[in-house]
Amino acid sequence: MDGRINIRELIMKSAGGALHRRADRIVSVFLLLAASISIITSIGIVLTLVTDAAHFFSEVSLRDFFGKNLAPLGSNPSFGVLPLIVGTLASSLLAMIVAVPVGLTAAIYMSEFAPAGLRNTLKPMMEVLAGIPTIVYGFFAYSFVTPMLMKMLPGLEAKNVLSAGLVMGVMIIPMVASLSEDAMNAVPTALREGALALGSTKLEVTLKVVVPAAISGIIASFILGISRAVGETMIVVIASGSSKKLTFDIMQSMQTMTSYIVEFTGGDAGSGTTGYYSLYAVGLLLFIFTLIMNLIAQYISKKYREAY
Amino acid sequence: MANGSGSGKYEKLAIEAPSFQKRTKRRILLDKVAGKLFSLSIFFALAVLCILLYQIVSKSIGWLDFKFLTGNLSMDPYKAGIRGVIIGSVLLMVVVIPVTLLLGVSTAIYLEEYAGKSRLRSIINTNISNLASVPSVIFGLLGLTVFGRLFNLGSSILAGGLTLSLLVLPIVVVASQEAIRAVPGFLRDASYAIGATKWTTVKKVVLPASLPGILTGSILAMSRAIGETAPLVVLGIPTLILRIPNGLLDDFTALPIQIYYWTLDTVLTAEYANLAAATIVVLLVLLFLMNSAAIIIRNKFQKRY
Hints:
Order of helices and strands of chain B: HHHHHHHHHHH
Order of helices and strands of chain A: HHHEEHHHHHHHHHH
Helix content of chain B: over 70%
Helix content of chain A: over 70%
Oligomer: heterodimer
Number of strands of chain A: 2
Structural class of chain B: mainly alpha
Radius of gyration of chain A: 25 Å
Strand content of chain B: under 5%
Number of domains of chain A: 2
Radius of gyration of chain B: 29 Å
Largest interface: A-B, 92 and 89 residues
CATH superfamily of the largest domain in chain A: MetI-like
CATH class of the largest domain in chain B: Mainly Alpha
Number of helices of chain A: 13
CATH topology of the largest domain in chain B: MetI-like fold
Number of domains of chain B: 2
Number of helices of chain B: 11
Number of strands of chain B: 0
CATH superfamily of the largest domain in chain B: MetI-like
Strand content of chain A: under 5%
């Protein structure tokens, strides 16, 4: 590293190449500007959300915001987000009930049990599942999963959280599987061989050595999965509908924070109204929610990582 | 009998031996069963994938034809075609591709070649990984406020394209960083040794060597952008546009948006479900082609040093 810089400085000091050096400087300024776009984007997101949410909170008190009445278009509008929070948590919880067991066992299979050849064909196939746009999953949930579930559960509404949550779970399986598998692959083979030499079976090695050693990465993958579910939009918009009633019945329609934002920008709320600003208040809440999840995931995977 | 207690011990062991064998057998059996059970998870996921594809393709049969691909949008499901929708998606990419490539690759070059190990570099890196996990609907709010209202671009192709560019920028940056990092130091040293400046080295040595990796990552980012719906809906794309967009400042509709509206409107007209399915097939074929291109580039041009 040092050697390289010295050679470079030597060349820079030598005669000629002044033009090149100036071009070098201009380019480096341009590159710095490009790199700062990502920072500007982050600042832009925070500023946008905070300034317009501030408008909202100058008209609606925090107490009403965390209330349970949501009727943004009524003659006497109210903006309680409790129904949205319940809807978001219900759909995310359902998604994780599918994604955690299936994703984790799929990761265990690929990392510990599958022969290398099979693994190399299965992995790209899981990536296909991850690459399907969420709008397609939404269509699938609404036009296939809901009608199918209706045959089994007679009370099911045409728009319901159950089907949205389950399909969202399928969408998150590849993410949980691939992140957990990365964590398990990082466990050194020597640990496995040690346990095998003591006479353990593969299953015992997996459950008593590999999974405990990779647990920080595995839990981080679950948290990132929840964060993904909380931020997921199109599946819930299409399959779960826009009921603003506070309910805990997963057979019914519930609105999430994301689908509230999508429903409201559809042109119902004119710019400058309280309803319009409520988008940003809900957006800010969603942003804080997912940011905290991501920070927790980063913290866990860094802090509790076993280093070998 | 002095040895009585001793032989008793051996007897006990001899009695335990079969139970030890039994336990070993059970452990091995459990291991085999668990392996099979774990593999079921993968086959569950793949089975859902197959059902999903089958459902969509079977709904689109009879609807997806040349007339559908080249016709104009219409309220009448038997007359509707998606020419304008495809043009909308293509024009969207005309904005997204140059913007994300220019910004994404420049950012990656700066971080890997210019920033050294500075604090700024770690701040930008952390920032990018956090941006990557911001929900796409939030990017929609950013686009609505900044591009839509502040820059007065409304719900035009330019506003949509810039919003999507910011959304997929982290993917391009991270992929390009990895590609640039994989270029070995001795190539750079050789370039400096013959008198090249830093920028010449980047332009003539680092970029050509990392191009396959950059392209692969960029194509994957584009395939994310082309299927993204939520930010565009938040921008306020009108429900039914019967005009074909002409320029970047025109209103537009794109493949995912049209799928969304047709799916919502199946309540009114059942045939819209078939139109949505046919449009999904077009989108999935497009994604398949893009991903195949990415894989081919990765396998064919990637050099190992």
